[in-house]
Each structure stands twice: as structure tokens, then as C-alpha cells.
Fold each of these.
Amino acid sequence: MSHSVTTVNPYTLKNIKTYQVQSKEDVMKALDKSDKAFQKWKLVEIEEKTELLYKVAEILEAKKHDFALLMTQEMGKPISESIAEIEKCMSLCDFYAANAESFLSDDIIETEAYESFISYDPLGTILAVMPWNYPFWQVFRFALPNLTAGNTALLKHASNVTGCALAIQDIFIEAGYPKDVFQTLVAPHETIEELIKNDKLKAVTLTGSEKAGKSIAEQCGNLLKKTVLELGGNNACIVLSDADLDKYLDEMVSARFQNTGQSCIAAKRFIVTEGIYDSFIDQFTKKVRALKIGNPEENDTKISILARPDLAETLKQQIDSSVKAGAHVLFGNDVLDAYFAPTILTNVSPEMSVFKEETFGPVAAIIKVKDEDEAYALATNSRFGLGTMVFTENIEAARKKIIDIPDGAFFINSMVKSDPRLPFGGTKASGYGRELSKEGMLEFLNVKTVLIN
Ligand code: NDP
């Protein structure tokens, strides 16, 4: 087992920094400290907790450019998107500062008893296993509602963004959170397994691959510990013949190419009816061709390096096997190290990798269909269930499809995106549980029934 982690800038391929990996003993000590901190933190008044959220937002604002650059250097995200990510974390602080008190206050339920109500009580220490694709946002959307609700947090971040993981710990310390309420661990998978076995660790949330999700869920299942899993997605973007391309084409392009395509909720399969197919292809290709590819630290870069070389290799294999099975490369498909140019594939069918599997990079799979019925049938033909989007001017017809969409989200004339005010999460192989909004805040709380006679 390696005793250190070295982060590497995927664009320059230069080492950034080497960090010591914590020993098993140190990680267990962190859990003890977290559990101790919980005993006091759970009693802190909600007003005090929400004040701290404003402090976090102030720090994010003051150091926005430093944090954005750190993300960009560690995982290659275009800098304009890194800045937007920090701003989104700030909006999350504001959202929970404004709403936490009402989300967490007792719900009085009238019964024959003298008094009966629901008390929303924190569980204790929660472990967050987080990915590199949105290094700040993924952590904040777990941490802010959970800390505010009285839980304490241990973060095991993806090793390639260890600098971000430690910077986030520093933010909570600087904001004035009591010591040990939020701690970052730099630890290998085996140590995490030991940590999960400990009774003081109450629950785990994981955002990442299906493989990681299954492994954590299996460990927790054996111990009857609650998990929330936010795994991969293979969202369909249905474009019906009456879609307003002038208005929504930019949105469709962002839906696929944001974060250089490394997003679980990205539109991965474009299912387009024949009435609009030719004009969609023509305009979509023009827009994709115009995306500026290059150095992630330049402000106008829209597409940059993938976060790791192995991610580009996987993507390349998915494309190659699909082309072998009959897909046409309309645009792109060039690889240079981890650098992956935007690619558009047409003539895609359901048995191909780019249809069946999650493609975590800038590849749009386009499927031509006869009509609306065929479009929805193909859209829902997926192991994943994060979200579906449809572009159409007939909102009433689309509304009737809500019941038929088996996913965690259905967006009409909008890309699927997360919003602090709305629940976020999936079904099927995309995982279970919700983040954000009131629903996300309640996941790791004990919804306790209290009755007084
Ligand atoms: P992983 O799922 O391997 O990594 C995500 C996080 O889980 C990291 O912190 C990783 O740690 C941790 N992890 C993985 N396995 C374990 C384990 N057994 N015990 C404890 N922690 C674990 O994703 P990859 O980075 O390898 O990406 C592979 C694919 O996963 C992508 O191509 C994409 O399809 C999907 N993915 C989906 C994401 C989403 O937003 N839903 C985000 C990232 C990936 P460490 O870095 O130390 O291995």
C-alpha cells in the first residue's frame, strides 16, 4: 500500500503536490473525535449553525479564484466552470441558511394524544465518499445540509483532488465550525472499509461509479447502515419535431459538453425524431465544432482535458466498439493522451456501448427515430435512471409522460441540472436516495415520532 498520494495536473502532466496517507489508527482517531464533536454539535442552536453557513459563503467568495484554480489544476475543468461551481456552492449556503430552520423544526401531528410530533434528529458521524468531477459542489451538497442538521462529517474524496479535499476542510475551520465537526481523510479503500465497520460511523453517502456504489452498499448492508448512492447516468435528451432549436440548442450542447462531458446528469443519448433530424444534426454539429478546446486555465476554453488518462481510454474503447457495430463518426474521435476531442456519433442503436453504458466524456450518441412513441420507448430503455429531458413545444403532451419516466428527474425544455431547491438523485443503476432541498436534508436524520399523553 502506498503511503502517499501525488496529485497530477492532467493538462500539463506535472505533479502538483504529494500528501501523506493517514494510517488506519489516525483514521480511527478521526472517527473518535468526530463522534465526540457530535455530542456537543447536535445541541448547538440552529441560529448559530445557519450563521456559520453565511461565513462559509463569505470565504468562498473571498477565495473564489484560488479554489477555482485548484479544481482546474487538479482535474482539468475549464476555469469558467470552476468559478461557476464555487458560486453554486455559495448559493447552496444561502439556500440552507434561509430554509434549514423550517425544514428541521418539529412537525406537529394532531392525534388523540396530548401531544404528538415528528422530531428530526441527527444520527452522528456520516462518511462521504466523493468523486473528482465536481470537487467542491459534490462535497458541499452533502456537507452543508448535514452539518446544519447536527451531523458531523468525514470526507473521503477522490485521491486526484486531495488538494480540494483539504482546502474544503480548511474552509469549515476558518468559518468557525467547532473542531472535528468536518474532517477530511486521506485514506485508501481498505481503511475506509475498517472505518465503516466501526459502530461510531452511522451512515455513508457515495457519489461515483456503480462499482464503488455496490462495494460500499454491500459493506453497509451487512451492517444495516443507511446509504445514499448517487451513481452514473445515461440520460436521454429527446428532441421532438416541434422542438424550438433556435431557443434551446445551446442548452442541448451544454447538456452534453459541460465539464468536458464528465457529468452524471449529462445528456448522453440524443433521441431525435425524423421530422427535425436533419436540421438538428446540422445545427448541433456547427455548435459543437465551435466549442473552444484547449488550456483549462484560459477563460474562453469550453472543452479541456479529461481528468485522468484511463477515462479517455475507456471512452475510446466505447466509441471503437460502437463504430465496429455500425455507428458513424460524424465529428471528432481524436485522442491525444487524456485529451479527448468532442465527438458526435450517428446511426447509434441500443446494442452499442455508447447507448448502453455511461460515456463519461464529450461524446454525443445520436439516434434517429420515427416518432414520439419510439423516442420515449428508447429513452426509457436504460439500466440507469437519473433523468430524462425532452424538447418540444407541446408541453401538455410531454406532461402526460411524467408517469412513464422511471427516472429521478424529468425536465421539459431544459437540460437536467441540480438546483438547491429541488431534490436530486436517481433510480435503478443510478442509485437511490436524494440530495439537496428538504428531501436531501432528511436522508441522514432520524425521523423520530414523539408522543406525550
Ligand atoms: P470511482 O467510483 O472509483 O471513484 C469515486 C470515489 O469513490 C472516489 O473517492 C474513490 O476513491 C472512491 N472509491 C471507489 N471505490 C471505493 C471503495 N471500494 N471504497 C472506498 N472508496 C472507494 O470512480 P472513477 O473515478 O474510477 O470513475 C469511473 C467511472 O465512474 C466514470 O467513468 C463514471 O462513469 C463514473 N463516475 C460517476 C460520477 C458521478 O457523478 N455519478 C463521478 C465519478 C465517476 P479513490 O479516488 O481513492 O479511488
Amino acid sequence: MAYSEKLMDHYEHPRNVGTLDVKDDNVGTGMVGAPACGDVMRLQIKVNDEGVIEDAKFKTYGCGSAIASSSLVTEWVKGKTLDEAGQLTNAAIAEELALPPVKIHCSILAEDAIKAAINDYRNKQSKE
Ligand code: FES
Ligand code: FES
């Protein structure tokens, strides 16, 4: 199977690998697993007072397409508002990375992870 250059680039040089402090009220954490293959992805965002995502980190225990998808998402959401980031779709990820059909679920994992991170952040805010 031939993978796109963009996919290989994100796979070999993943952006924003790491961890943000889960106890920080400005940090939202999304942790999702893919039932199809058991891969797990954690994506975190740090949101500033204006509601803009100023930092994003991920850790993915999974296949190359899942790693590339999460790497791409962390790049995309930085500088975006929560509403903008929430509109990100797996189709856009799959298109950007030219994912083959069997790897579409890897991009769905990344969409689910960013949505979960946004929800977690919003839940934290509403508890304050
Ligand atoms: Fe093997 Fe995802 S199925 S790493
Ligand atoms: Fe399952 Fe990629 S996330 S194979």
C-alpha cells in the first residue's frame, strides 16, 4: 500500500507529541480508543482566556495513520477557537493525508479525540 508524502512526514516527524497537565483547568483531555483495532489516542488542548487554543499535544498508541492524523489535528487546532476546532471532520483529515479506505477509522479516532478534549474542557469550565 502506498502512503502519501504528507502522511509519511507526519508519521516520521510527528508534531506536538507530549502531555499537558490534566489538572490545569485550562486543559481539556480527550482519550479515545478504536474498537476496530484497539488503538488508543490521547489529545489535549490548552485554551486561553479568549477561548482560543494556544497549545495542543497528543500521544497515540497505534498505527502510522492514527499517529499522522493526531499530529495533523494538533497543528490544525492551534490558534483556532473551540467552535472552529469542533467543526474539524475526519473527512478533512483523511483527504489531507490521502488515507486509504481501510485507514479511514484512524482519522475518525482523531476527530473523536479533539471533540472529547473540547467537551472535557467545557465540562471543567461549567464546574467552576
Ligand atoms: Fe495495528 Fe492499528 S491495527 S496498529
Ligand atoms: Fe486502527 Fe489506525 S487507528 S489501524
